[in-house]
User: Fold this.
Amino acid sequence: MSKEKTFVIVGLILVLGIFIFFFIKHILSKLVEKHIANYQNDLITKHYNEVENIYKQMRGWKHDYHNHIQTMKAYLELKKYEDMEQYLNDLDRDLTNIDTVLKTGNIMVDAILNSKLSLAISHEINVKAKATVPKNLQVADIDLCVIIGNLMDNAMEAAAKCKNLEERFIRVYIREMKGQLYISITNSVGGEVKKTGFGYISTKLGTNHGFGLKRVDSIVAKYNGFINRQNEEGVFATEIILPL
Assistant:
């Protein structure tokens, strides 16, 4: 074979290789864009459902408020003052028990965390939450909300699988600790916790399976933070430390 033919063949191979490279790159880019679009659509739908759930609760409280007034009016008309006092005490206790509104010091965190807690309660999950977010954060609000939102979604998914309602729980604890932001979310688990050599994986179904966990890990790495996941029988816990 002459040198000219060899150069031509090599040139064609190089051109073909470049074409294949850019073609594959284009296909992968489209797949990533589609994956991100699906993930964002899922988030929009999820946030819509959470807001709708809050509105339902507000309408329920309005209905209950009307019933309480009618009951107290009846006690007054019948001059049952002791029954009236007992009813007011019971009502005060109930209002204290359902007050799950958190004020963390960060408006965006308040919004995402309270919406998730409201949704968890609607799924009959027992929640306890204590959260304080310092003002001097180097972590962007949107990144912090992505972390909390994904952790809460995974916690709700796992807890909701517990067939025994009394076993369903989520515990949230967020505070400043030794110059760092400490985030801890512990929840009950119904079913098997899946784990591979690369770590825990989500049990969600659908095209965005596991994408939330990767987002959390990437954000923690972005700020040179620390994440620890542990599970025991029936319980799963995630701890995250982010520098202030």
